[in-house]
User: Fold this.
Amino acid sequence: KLSNFGKEKRLVFPHLSRISKFPQISGKITRLYLDQSAIEEVPSSIECLTDLEVLYLRNCKRLKRISTRFCKLRSLVDLFLNGCLNLERFPEILEKMEHLKCIYLDGTAITELPLSFENLPGLEVLFVEDCSKLDKLPDNIGNLKSLGHISAAGSAITLPLCLESLNLTGCNMLRSLPELPLCLKYLYLGDCNMLRSLPELSLCLQSLNARNCNRLQSLPEIPSCLQELDASVLEKLSKPSPDLRQWAPGCLESQPIYFGFTNCLKLNGKANNKILADSLLRIRHMAIASLRLGYEKAINEKLSELRGSLIVLPGSEIPDWFSNQSSGSSICIQLPPHSFCRNLIGFAFCAVPDLKQVCSDCFRYFYVKCQLDLEIKTLSETKHVDLGYNSRFIEDHIDSDHVILGFKPCLNVGFPDGYHHTTATFKFFAEQNLKGIKRCGVCPVYANPSETKDNTFTINFATEVWKLDDLPSASGTSDVEELEPSPKRICRANQINTP
Assistant:
C-alpha cells in the first residue's frame, strides 16, 4: 500500500511488467503511470484518487475489467487505454464526469460503448482506431456537444443516426468513411492524407471541409433524390424583404452551403475533367439545397440575405457550360426579357483567383467578393438593383490555382411586367493578399414548372446568354420594337434531367 505522498503529484512504478495487481494508493496523485503492467483489473479502490487527472494504462495486455467506481474520478481529464488487447467492455459511467476530455481506446477489444457515455459532457476527443470488434457508437453520442474529434481509422463502426457534426481532422491513417448519417450537417476532414474517396453525402450537409486531403481522387457522388423544388419554397423566398443594405436587429444571414477541397491536388489531374463535367449537376444540387435551407430558416427567422452555395477546388479552368466567360474580373450580360426574367432565381458563378506574387507567410486566408448590379430598363424608367456576395473565408495556405464555383440566389428582384431590357454586370474582387481575378464566368439560373409533378419546379441553367459587348446598343431607346425579343436572341435553357 502506497500512501502519504503529501505534495507528490506524479507516480511512476519501476518494473511495471512485474505488477499484476492494481496497487493500493492514496494521496494527492494527479498522474499515474501503469503502462505495460500485468494488471487484470482496475478495482473499486481507485475511487479514492479524487485528484487524479491523467491515468496511463497503455498496452496493459491482460487488463479485462474496469470497476464502475471509476466514475468517482471527478478530476480525471485524460484516460489512456490504447493497446489493452483484452479489454472488451468500457465501464458504465454512473455519475457525471465533468472534466474528462480525452479517451484513447485504440487497439482494444471493446465491442460497444455504453449509453452512459452521455455522462461525459466535457468529452472532446475519442480515439477508437483499430477497434475491430466495435461496430457502432452509442446512438446518443450526438448529445455530447463538446465532442469535436472522433478518430475511427481501421474500425468498422457505423455512425449514430442522430449525429449532426463529425470532425475527423488530422486522421492521417483514415482511408475511407462509413455510410454517413442522414442528418449530418457538418463534416470536417482536413489533413486526412490517406483518404482517397468519399461516400454519398447527406442531403442535410451544409459544410464539408476536406482541405489538404492529398490523395483524394474524386468528389462524392451527387445525391439522386434531390431533383426538384417545391413551389412553396420559391413562394416563401420570393416575398419582398427589407433592403439588404439596411441591417435590421434580429435579421440573420443564412450561412452558405460550403464544400472546400483546397490543396486536394489529386483532383487537378485526370479527375478534374470529370469534376468539371459534373459541376453543373453539382451546382444545381447545391442550389436546390441552399434554397430549401433558406426556406426552412425563413419560416421562423428573419433573413436579411440568402447566401447560396460555394465549392472551392484545385484547377484553373472555367467549366464549358458557363457560356458567359471573361478574362479578368468583370463581365456584362443581357438577360432575356419578360417571362424568362420572371423565372430567374439566381446566378451560378465561377472565378479563378490570381495567386501570383503572394507572400506565403501572410497568405493564410482569403475570400472572393462578387458585386452584381442589375439595370432594369422599361419604356418609362430605369432602375438598379445591387446585390453583393462574399464567399466565406478560405483559411488555408494555397500555392496553386483554385476554382471557386457558387450559386447566388436572387428571388425578390421585382422584374416588371411587359418587355424590358435587363443588363447584369458582375464584378469580382479578391480580398486579403490576392492579386486579383484571372478569369470569371456567370450563368443565369431559372425555375420552370415541372411537366410531370404539380406544384414543383425544375432548375434550368441558361446555356446561351449574350455578352453586352455582342449586342447592339440599347441605351436611350423608346421604341417598343427594340424591347421585344429578336428571334436571334432567344435564350436557350439547358434543363438538367435526372440520370
